């Protein structure tokens, strides 16, 4: 048990140190390449001052997280304390990296090719679906796929047929990835919320799961370390944005950890902010189309979506929104953990 605690702490410290120490140089490199974010006109007018801030900063914490996970596995191997569960941390990172690669392609098209919308919605969806299917296949080949789902609070486990479980997992992964992507709209918002969610999974995997899930705990703590290092540069006023490179990676990481722990439904609780952001967009779009068809002009429920922009338009500062959304996430994670 002691070596496992050491492994999780090592992943946290390593990821933080690598991300924090390399961040300044990486941001300077992005400036030299002129990889600045173009701010869309549909957003709040005052966001235009952020135009030119380097994007693709997600590479920073992806790099830190990956090195920390690999270092943990390597150290465990040479010290002959290798736990098979650590291989799971590598699998989780590699699949998350695949989603990050989709985001990188999207960012590259936006920044370098100067096409502000990046990949089309269909292209993103199909690529995400392919990587979600790849995750399921890899887990099946490794004999690690479990078709159980834990019901929150009563902690009752339901086992569902494999033919139903596979599309369900793909839906959960793709849905979560896009929900986290929508949350990344304010300085430090997605980073702060995901630190708390990852901490929840780290502690749950180690202390509350039926058997300690060392791989999930190590991966989650590495992610926490990487994000904390990234927040040094991403907090308001942001010196760098994570871009789709980072947000798609984070979305995949959160979803895969939940799936691995059979906590698919818990995502609705601990990831409430992600889904509130998504739901606000769905409500706004649906109501606008409905009222336009019925009354000849579209009407809105919110002042602007995703919902963090609604609060901005109500006069909330970015720092207040990040603090409140993080506090809500922390409270819900506590309820889910002890419930």
Q: Measured on Cα atoms, how large is the radius of gyration?
A: 20 Å
What low-confidence regions span 5 or more consecutive residues with pLDDT below 50? none
Structural class assignment? mainly alpha
What's the mean pLDDT score?
A: 90
Q: What coarse outline follows from CA principal-axis ratios?
A: globular
Helix content: over 70%
Our estimate of the beta-strand percent is under 5%
Q: How many domains make up the 3D coordinates?
A: 1
Main-sheet strand order equals 1-2
Number of helices: 12
User: How would you spell out the order of helices and strands?
Assistant: HHHHEEHHHHHHHH
Features:
339 residues; mainly alpha; 12 helices; 71% helix
